[in-house]
Write a structure and sequence with these properties.
single chain; 73 residues; mainly alpha; 4 helices; 71% helix; globular
Length: 73
């Protein structure tokens, strides 16, 4: 299923704001990380209806990716 592009953009903004707050990153850095993430790819491709999950859930998934990346460096 494909979600409305405007609604998805608004969802992305909410996810990034939550992620920035949780991670301590600036909004700009959080946005850059988001657009390079696997979470973004899954949402944008409509895999498993990820766009239907809550903003908090998706921000948590993004945080897990971030922590994994930071720990691997």
């Amino acid at each position: 299923m494909e979600a409305n592009k405007t609604i998805l953009q608004m969802k992305y903004a909410r996810i990034v704001a939550i992620f920035a707050k949780e991670s301590g990153l600036s909004l700009e850095d959080a946005l850059a990380f988001f657009y390079d993430s696997d979470t973004y790819k899954l949402i944008s491709e409509g895999v498993a209806d990820m766009h239907c999950r809550s903003d908090e859930y998706l921000a948590d998934e993004l945080m897990l990716e971030y922590k994994e990346q930071v720990c691997s460096q």
